[in-house]
Amino acid sequence: MKPFIAFTKKEMLEYSRSYKIFIFLILFAILGMLSPLSAVFMDDILENFMPKGVKIEITDPTNLDSWMQFFKNGTQTGLMIMVILFSGMMAKEYEKSTLINMVTKGLSRKTVVLSKFTAALILWTVSYWLCFLITLAYTKYYFPDGKTANLGLAVFSLYVFGIMLIAVLLLGAVTFKNVYGPLLLTGGFTLILFLVNIFPKAAEWNPLQLANSNMRVVQGILKLSDLKYSLLTAAIVVAVSLVSSLKIFDRKGL
């Protein structure tokens, strides 16, 4: 257990020295503020971009508009930021052969993989929930009377989807010795999820539902019973990715 804690601390220290921690926290804090502010000032923003004489009637913004922006920013921007910044979690280790001395001195390869995953998970967790809390505070301020159904489930679903992407990224990072391999694997995996949606019977098992059906959850259209299979699939993907990463890294040259 001590080697695991020590290596995880080492990973967090490297994230700090490479400014990834600060990049994550700042960007996700900005996304958290932008979500409700975009909903509040959307009318003024559109007026500035529309040609003179053209008017668009827009209903007054509500708390649902704020959460719509949150999930839009989370899936399009937040997850993209995470994938890009975590894509090189093993590349430097392979490039500089920094793990050879550690492994030859007794550090378990399993510890390396699990610590990499844990450090990335910690950073994703803190950044994501910081973003959520900021959005929640601003939304409560601007829309104090607004009500949402199953907000916790909707937010948790997107969080789980992010964990799944981290596990897939780790698998790519262990398999390939560069930054591009994890990106291509994660991109290909996401593309497959979109293709699966073509088949209606498979859609309810598709973990993509955790990232693109959040507003339907907030609006009360979907409930936990509608997402349980998607959550189960995501958990299976995480487990398979971690086990595969452990096996591949155990056989891979450093």
Automatic annotation (TrEMBL):
<protein>
    <submittedName>
        <fullName>ABC transporter permease</fullName>
    </submittedName>
</protein>
<feature type="transmembrane region" description="Helical">
    <location>
        <begin position="74"/>
        <end position="91"/>
    </location>
</feature>
<keyword id="KW-0472">Membrane</keyword>
<keyword id="KW-1133">Transmembrane helix</keyword>
<dbReference type="GO" id="GO:0140359">
    <property type="term" value="F:ABC-type transporter activity"/>
</dbReference>
<keyword id="KW-0812">Transmembrane</keyword>
<feature type="transmembrane region" description="Helical">
    <location>
        <begin position="229"/>
        <end position="249"/>
    </location>
</feature>
<feature type="transmembrane region" description="Helical">
    <location>
        <begin position="151"/>
        <end position="172"/>
    </location>
</feature>
<feature type="transmembrane region" description="Helical">
    <location>
        <begin position="179"/>
        <end position="199"/>
    </location>
</feature>
<dbReference type="GO" id="GO:0005886">
    <property type="term" value="C:plasma membrane"/>
</dbReference>
<feature type="transmembrane region" description="Helical">
    <location>
        <begin position="21"/>
        <end position="42"/>
    </location>
</feature>
<dbReference type="Pfam" id="PF12730">
    <property type="entry name" value="ABC2_membrane_4"/>
</dbReference>
<feature type="transmembrane region" description="Helical">
    <location>
        <begin position="112"/>
        <end position="139"/>
    </location>
</feature>
